[in-house]
Amino acid sequence: MVIVESQKEWDRFLTEFKSESSVIVPVQCDDNKHPLATNLCLLYIRMLNDGIEEYVLPFRHSDAMNLKKKYLYQINTPHKVFTYDKKKLLHLLHLENIDDVQMKNYLDKNVPMPIDELTTNAHEHFNRVYWGKANINCIIPIMKHLERCRLVVDEVKKCVFGKIQDSFSTYNNDVIPNLYNIEKNGLQTTDGMVYSEYNPYTSTGRPSNRFGGINFAALNKKDGSRKKFISRYGKDGMLIEMDYDAYHLRLIGNVIGYDFPKGSVHKHMSKYYKVGYDEAKSLSFQYLYGHIPEDVLKNNPFFKKVQVYINDTWNSYKSNNFVESDIYNKRIYKSNLSDMNKNKLFNYLIQLMETENNMRVLTKLLPKIEGYKSKIILYSYDSFLFDVHKDDGMEFVKMVKAVVESRGKYPVRVSTGLNYHEMEDITEKL
Questions:
Q1: What are the b/e assignments for 179-214, b being 16+ CB within 10 Å?
Q2: Same domain as 153, residue 258
């Protein structure tokens, strides 16, 4: 093991790093803070070819002669880099060709890796004695970090050479970078900048999003708590939200080949139910996420096709011991799910359709908005939130809307406001 503290040691490390694949474990100064709100304490790097060479690169640790931050920008390699959390590593160190081993494990087992459970007595002691103190990792002895990092690498190596789902490439190269790109933009509040943290390793595949005591995926629309979210551009900016209309109905409609007419889906469905708009909306969601009554199956062509899809996917799941998502072909293995029934499986697939279509939209959208001042700052189940600078103008909003709507396939309602609570519907103006 080499603790890199001199130019000679750095040159040796860099030559080795550029010559073969490796595993990287980042240690940030404060584990209680978002990676964007703290500094990098050290990097642990294990070479894979022989599995012996290992390096500790200290940047902010009391035990070592710390490397200057400029050295971070010299770290690059043409070879594969493996890590347990690619999104976190990208916030601390920008590298190409990173494989998220946790994603490999998740696609195979539908659960995250037990990385958080890996610790040492020293880590437990310091975190107990100095609870609430900032930057604890900077005083935990390097040798104890080394001990824990070795445990992490042992866990990571179990997955490095394991089987890989066909969908891994898309999830690794699109989904994780998409979430990283939203996180890095942050959200401006009246109290300063805050950061969200998406967790894609959920049982249903729909990312959760919470950090610092805030559940960003379920911000209350009625209690005024959204008021604190404002534009970072002050008087030169505004928040703009694009919210999908009848999203799940349209998603499944697209998969089963049911073409909704232009206009409101719920008005269309109300004709079959012979009820008003609000009741039709309630009934559609009730049937979609629950049991479809026999009379609805007889009289409603949409739900007749939905039931065929539910039955087909359930039969495929039972006979093949897995089912695939409709967009990215992610496999959900029977062995990884418990207490499953056909309606519950359908709900899983609906959430995957939602997630994967959103990711497909983001993959198209993010390169298009890269050169603008405006930023995407939040993605929730059926909406995208942007912090828009006035210099980008309404042409920017219209361009984004066209991409988000996928050429009109999934229409959105557009709202704008000076804060996230007081938003005005401007869809008609666009």
A1: bbbbbebbbbbeeeebbbbbebbbebbbbebebeeb
A2: no
